[in-house]
Amino acid sequence: MAVRAALRRRHRATVPARLRLLRTATTLLATALAVLLLVAGLTALGTWDATADRDAPRTTSAAGLALALNDMDAQAANILLSSGNAGEGRLRTPYGKAVGFYGDARRDIGHELRTLAVAAQGNRADEKTVESLTDGFAEYQELVGRALENDGRKGRKADALADYRTATDLLRLQLLPNARKLVASNDDAFDTRYTSARSTLSAQLVAVIVLGLLLLAVLGVLQWYLARRFRRILNPGVLAATVCALLAVVLGAQLLSASSEYLRVARRDAFDSVVALSRARAIAYDANADESRYLLDPERRDRYERAFLAKSRELYGIEGATLSSYDSGLATTWQAYESDSDDLRFTGEFRRELDNITFAGERAAAEETVRAYAVYQRDDRRIRALLEQGEERAAVEFCITWEPGMSNAHFGAWMAALDGVTDINRDHFAAAVRDGRSTVGALLPWACGLLPAALLLTAVGLRPRLAEFR
Question: CB–CB of 421/353 below 8 Å?
């Protein structure tokens, strides 16, 4: 009898101890899981804020700076081409437009430099690059200002051209390389943070699943123990707690996996194309400027012709193509692509975009951009042919006039098509950011809130059983 009484006392002491142990394990695991989900959710929101408000704008600002620098230099050349001799023989409409675009580009450059100066804070290399750009741009403006001042005086065209040469050399040798360096630096920084963020999300997802499975296992053991010791099939409180824990794990895993996928769409599917297309736009403006420089400066025509071809290859590269064979090569390779979209016999920024087609309407918009580019390329040959025929004024008018059918009008149509495909990717980038933020905002409160509910339900379910041992 004494032995049996001792066993009963031991049993009565052991059962509540085990229940309290399982309750403590449940509390610790649920708390750890809730903290992990909260930290992961807040980190994901921080990633979206950095992506939308810092990383992407820095890269596009640097690309915008390169574009505006090229545009400003092109417009300076167009002003000199259309101004006549101190106003005599001026091409009034092209001159007026060039002056307006020149002022717009100068303001854009000032804005982008201020944006990049703020973005570069804390990165000494970028700070030095922005400082060099700011100083170099001040010098460039002074040189162009002097060129335009000389151009306003009769008989000073040669002096104006000399000043413009110095300015465009400064642009080519210092300003544009530094602008491209900023594009690469900011894009690389974005890519590094993107890689780190996705790696963190993957690690957090694994941790959530592991902790969640452990929590569910402990709740399962608790349910089994209660059924075995108290001869009940299910404990309603623990069952409800298990359901809450399961939902929390599912929602937490969904939050992290969806955040990772939205981040991939934002960076790889959308922003990689935005970067390629932004580079293409800057190169396009530089190539367009080379045409104006070619007409303006007879002594450097060979140089500017080679530069135009090099930039054409950066946009749509054709192996072994020269300027005289480029059009036929473009037509042949593009016809092959149109017959089979997997047959891409060209390289460059357009190839980069066509390799990354993701969204509805993107392929059609990208193809329209290349077709508009082909029209612009044919216009370039006409400009050079007119010049070879001694029709210099006709070549200038065709190059810098914006009337329908003229080269600048076709250039504008090409840029509009390029903007169209860029906008598709920008819109999907913004949508991915918006969806990523809203996913965190919608799921995080539920995932975190269900875990305290699971603890409360566990306590409620165990309370009557523990009361039996008091």
Answer: yes
Cβ atoms of residues 364 and 338 within 8 Å: no
Half-sphere exposure of 331 (CA within 13 A, CB side): 8
Burial bucket for residue 70 (CB in 10 Å: 0-12, 13-18, 19+): buried
pTM of the model: 0.89
Would you give the distance in Å from CA 205 to the centre of its chain? 25
Can you read off the two tokens belonging to residue 402?
Answer: 């914006």
457's CB contacts (< 8 A; 6+ apart) are: 237, 238, 240, 241, 244
Q: What is the pLDDT along the chain (470 residues), one digit of tens a residue?
A: 554 544 455 445 477 778 888 888 999 999 999 999 999 999 999 999 999 999 999 999 999 999 999 999 999 999 999 998 777 788 888 999 999 999 999 999 999 999 999 888 888 989 999 999 999 999 999 999 999 999 988 888 999 999 999 999 999 999 999 999 999 999 999 999 999 999 999 999 999 999 999 999 999 998 888 887 776 678 888 899 999 999 999 999 999 999 999 999 999 999 999 999 999 999 999 999 999 999 999 999 999 999 999 999 999 999 999 999 999 999 999 999 999 999 999 999 999 999 999 999 999 999 999 999 999 999 999 999 999 999 999 999 999 999 999 999 999 999 999 999 999 999 999 999 999 999 999 999 999 999 999 999 988 878 776 666 66
**Phi and psi dihedrals of 367, rounded to 5?**
-65, -40
Burial of 252 (0-12, 13-18, 19+ CB in 10 A): buried
Close Cβ partners of 69 (under 8 Å, ≥ 6 residues apart)? 105, 109, 137, 171, 175, 176, 179
Measured CA to CA, the distance from residue 315 to residue 346 in angstroms comes to 9
Q: How far apart are CA 308 and CA 71, in angstroms?
A: 15
The answer to whether the CB of 361 falls within 8 A of the CB of 424 is: yes
